[in-house]
Amino acid sequence: MDEEYDVIVLGTGLKECILSGLLSVDGLKVLHMDRNDYYGGESTSLNLTQLWKRFRSNDKPPENLGSSREYNVDMIPKFMMANGTLVRVLIHTDVTKYLNFKAVDGSFVYNKGKIYKVPATDVEALKSQLMGLFEKRRARKFFIYVQDFEESDPKSHEGLDLTKVTTREVISKYGLEDNTVDFIGHAVALHRDDHYLDEPAMDTIKRMKLYAESLARFQGGSPYIYPMYGLGELPQAFARLSAVYGGTYMLNKPECKVEFDASGKAFGVTSEGETAKCKKVVCDPSYLPDKVQKVGRVARAICIMNHPIPNTSDSHSVQVILPQKQLGRKSDMYLFCCSYAHNVAPKGKYIAFVSTEAETDQPEVELKPGIELLGPVEETFFDIYDRYEPSNKNVDDNCFISTSYDATTHFESTVVDVIDMYSQITGKVLDLTVDLSAASAAAEETQS
């Protein structure tokens, strides 16, 4: 271990593993360490026995739930946008060869007490039960504007400068009702609150286009894909990638103490009496607790069921977004469901998550609107965890710390953090102009 590295990465969470892979591919000498004896950190996957141990101490799971090792329960479950940045990262790094994906069956939104499929195109707008006849036509016109919009083609802008005009102003041009704005903003553009309405519209239009393009990629019921056997496969795939490019992995390394020189800059990491030197340290918040600040908490419920979520067309895998306004809350609530179809549970079993930014100390009460949509549940585990973000300046201390995972059940905010960290560490912009047909092929192969 007494060697010098360009970067030492601490923790094998998803973000850290993606960064380790990207930096190794860039030719940097990377040492990746974890105090745990398993991959994944906070974003690990657990079998049934591990799940029981974590949430019910030493109780044994009941036999009617099936074989423990057939469960792969992600602690931070998130779907990937088929055309999104994370998929581009996977292709850019060639990690796709270690993974198989399957399209997610459904994308739904909660509105006035019911669940509806999310319409994302002009054709779907006309079929949607979410809107009345005249509103469907208005929504259709807006979706056509979004689909035809090209940043490089001023003719498609219809006289609007989206870098200056707010989303609220663009939407008012089409006369859309509040209900329609709600599902477009939260379930298509995937904003987590309503601040976007008074910000420049370009970001929202790009997010809507990404959703529609991802939906078109597999002609399926949603724009999302998910790896077979769950997200636990991702950190391991990036670990393999890093190893191929000369990266070194060490699990079960106690302490992992970051060493600082007199000027406060990190110069290495000590574990078991040995110090590995480095130019930069990358880690999750748990490794440098004095350099992060608490910014919120996530409340969640993990539920084991023997049926799909009702009113989702019997979807084996599905995301349902409950916009804040529909619940009288400050933040959205998310339902995530996966099943044996993605090899995350035994045949006939479904794993559902309900998650939100915690606004109280009572997850059981707070998550009730989401849990009520699940139908009968065999087992439920409640949990609240703190969210942190870095409070340090990495130019001063050479430490690059990821933010904690939020309550969303998709990767769009997670991957933004990874790309930002990559740019801060390397001083470069990550080039993700890749051929997305490789991802289609990987997923379609799995579908067949």
Which descriptors apply to this entry?
31% helix, seven-stranded mixed sheet, 448 residues
Describe this structure in words.
- This protein has about 450 residues and is of the alpha/beta class.
- It has 15 helices and 19 strands.
- Strand 1, helix 1 and strand 2 form a beta-alpha-beta unit.
- Helix 1 runs parallel beside helix 9 (about 235-245) and helix 1 (about 15-25) crosses helix 14 (about 410-425).
- The longest helix has 17 residues, at about 200-220.
- The N and C termini lie far apart (about 45 Å).
- The relative contact order is 0.20.
Mean pLDDT: 91
Using the CA coordinates, give the radius of gyration. Answer: 22 Å
Query: Structural class of the helices, strands and pairings?
Result: alpha/beta
Strand content: 15-25%
The total count of helices amounts to 15
End-to-end distance: 45 Å
Number of strands: 19
Roughly what percent helix?
A: 25-40%
